Amino acid sequence: MKIQQNLLFFLEMETVRICVFLLLFLSQTWAETDELQMVDMKQDVGRDNSKCNITVNFWAELKELRDMVITSKSKIEKLEEEKSELLSRVTTNENKVALSDARLSASESETEELKRQITETPKVAFSVGLTDAREIGPFNTEITLKFSKVFTNFGQAYNTHTGVFTAPLRGVYYFRFTGFSVKTNHWFGVILYHNNKRVSWNTDYNDDVFYASISNGLPLELEKGDVVYLVLPSNHVKYDDSYNRTVFSGFLIFPL
């Protein structure tokens, strides 16, 4: 009986001990489980925070990219404006260059035309002196003065044998002449004729002045073949010597 009681007591103690062990084991397990859950929760929170940080960083970078795009767009628009302005300037300069080229071409054409005209237009100019014989006149009629001393006679339009200038082409000519006298108490001078028409009468009276002179000049429009010459009026005198005091000159100004 006592043995049975001891055995029961032993069994009860073993059971209590096993129960206590189980309780301790379960408590440890629950503590570890809680700790693991806390770790998982912390990891979840970390993951959430990381996700949040990633999300925040993503939107920040996206905003930065958007700002960069806007800035780049503004720069591109400004560059486009500058490009447009430069193209406008280039176009303006090209137009100016084209206009200058056109003007240069026109000037070159005009120059070539002038060269052609100068080359093709006869060169007409003469200057002649009357004589070295000194006094001429007076005569009882008009005489054509024959200037025998040739200084210049381009185109050979002045004839020293007849004293007549003949226009080789239609144009405007300029004529000039001088006269001189040393004979006192006499009339002296010349008459300029165009064909048979008196154009200019140039005379003076040398009273008591030993040296007296006259001069005149004018342009005339002549047809081809027209003649111009100087005539000594009747009862007038003229003087010339090696100093060439009486001279007749003319030249073509431009053809018509």
From TrEMBL:
PROSITE patterns: C1Q. GO terms for cellular component: extracellular region. It is found in: Secreted. InterPro entries: C1q_dom, Cerebellin_Synaptic_Org, Tumour_necrosis_fac-like_dom. Residues 119-256 form the C1q domain. Residues 1-31 form the signal peptide. It comes from the Eukaryota. Residues 62-96 form a coiled coil. The keyword Nuclease does not apply. Keywords: Coiled coil, Secreted, Signal. This is C1q domain-containing protein. It comes from Neogobius melanostomus.
